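Hi,

I'm pasting everything inline rather than attaching a file, because the server keeps stripping attachments. The sequence lines come first, and each chain or strand is labelled.
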Amino acid sequence: MTAVVEVDQISKRFRLYHERHRSIKDRIIHPGGGTYTDLQALDEVSFAIDSGQTVGILGRNGSGKSTLLKCICGVLKPNSGQILVRGTLAGLLELGAGFQPELSGRDNVYLSGSMLGFSRKDVDRMFDTIVDFSELEGFIDTQVKFYSSGMYVRLAFAVAVNVDPDVLVVDEVLAVGDERFQAKCMDRIRQFQLEGRTIMLVSHNADQVRSLCDRAIVLDRGRMIADGPSGDSVRIFREALMGEGRPSEGEAPPAVSVMIESVSTATGRFSARTNEPFNFEVALSATEPFEGYFVLELHTHDGTLVARTDPTGSPVSLSAGSQRLGVGLPELPLLDGDYELSVGLVSAFGHSVAAWREQVATVEVAYDGRASGLVPLAPNVTMY
Amino acid sequence: MTDSSTPARRPVEDRPVRVVSARPSFGLRLREIWDARELLTYFIITDIKIKYKASALGLLWSMFAPAATLAIYWVVFGLILKNNMPAFALFLFAGLLVWNFFFSVIITSTSIVVDRAGIVKKVAFPREILALSTVGTSFIYFLIQSGVMVLFMVAFWRGPDWSMIWLLPFSILSLAIFAGSLGILLSAINVYLRDTRHLIEVALQMWFFLTPIIYSFEAQVSKRLHHVRGLNLTWLYLLNPVTPTVMTFQRVIYATPVVQSLAPGHPTLTVLPTWPMSTYVILNLGVLAAGVALFALAISVFGRLEGNFAEEL
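And the predicted assembly:
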């Protein structure tokens, strides 16, 4: 297996200036050049991505995700370390970044194709596919400044995914266009995967990462804290960055610390039957009394979210110390299969997560009938 | 396209490898610039197209400013101050042609990285080609102005010095290398020191008068610098890398170094130096050498400054 992206001990430091002196005049008045603090955006990050992998990059705001992608694309130069990229790379840091409003859609397709590193011949070959994909046949010779914002991003996305890159780097730009076009983009990304291309994707959306990627890297304050199968990484991301009660940026730290110690059932086995009750217990410890809500999530093995409960439906009130919560689902409307259970507590105010355990147990659901899929449906068929 | 049921690995083993590192080597930088040559032509074509579309008269309009400059200098120095030079407009045009090219490269490239912040922050490509694209754009305007100048020559019914005409492309190319390199350097500096642009405007104004465009080198400069306290300081004046190209163009286009003066009582006027062709060749080789050296310097300085562009903009 050949590594297509090799990141070797990349560090990037930003200087945050409190007061910036950016002219010769200012430099003469303030010879020091301004006061600043250093921000270590990336700290000795190393990993290698093999051909054909889809890798998600997770992290909070300011964890260095975008800096990493910018370094890989070559927009930013790291302070130390080096990155090797094999083959052509299309970086979508922002859709339509290189578009010239005064030019026609056609000219912009060639221009942005060229900026992504593709020759005129490459773009010629893919031009019709690009226009088809963007659904802008009637407007391709119109100046881009007359496009709606939706048309603009559609054209930009169409160029990036159709110019035949070996590596596609995407920074949270998948939320483009209307729902139908988004679905089309996701289809295109899946097709990319099938074609054995390599994709790197930055996302805030852990569910999206889990369902699209086979591997995920978690960054926290510039350091890589996890690199592994996306399920594991998503768990680490949620637990390490939320579950420990560490405040994420802009949020007040939770006053109390609640820990989910374990999840158990009376029988010791997490097995259930379709449409029958399923009960389990959650062992908790709290340092202080806690008022909040209980949430549970079920995912399938391939990362599809089956259910996330409405927290306001299940308020909990904890006293300090260890205690147990009984959780009962009166009936489990799921067909046979294994479902990953995640549980958590969210605070009464806002929705900051006070405690979270990702995939604490696998619930095996048994079903005797012949229906298949995720949920049982029993249609009433009437003959008139 | 692969059939969806049989996912096939794309062969990537033999694909070219791109390196992003803190300090890319000089050779690597040159290769990246060379690889982006197609993007460079797109930038140039785009620039021209946008200018062309922006106004109804398009390219013709962009010729208005150079034409006005030419007219003003011709009125001031030819008619009012009377330099007694026959076909002064042609002499002026030859020099302005070169100067306009140089001026437009320097003034646009200085602010080009800042002006194109949108793509510099989001798209990866060798940023040197932004400055280089201004050389291309300016060169196209240079060609158009050259066409107008040919009309002038026809109007004055004066031919060029055919024996030296081959010097023109060589000379403008040497200047283009010098101007492009200086542009690359200034485009990077202007990101960090934003008032560089204003200083450059003033510097270019002085530079213009240090170049023999509105006056004749032979009539005004040569005599005065020939004996400054016993020293010949003409070489100092010739260190200006725009001067050799300007003088080459004047020599080829104006063609006659010694002319009949228009003033009564002064039968001849030496407008251009009576140097042999070899002197012009050597002077232009000097510009070429300075250009290549500055290019090497500009690429390495640019490489040091480029790493932080995306955050400085």
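The longest strand of chain A covers residues 3-17.

If the labels don't parse on your end, tell me and I'll reformat.
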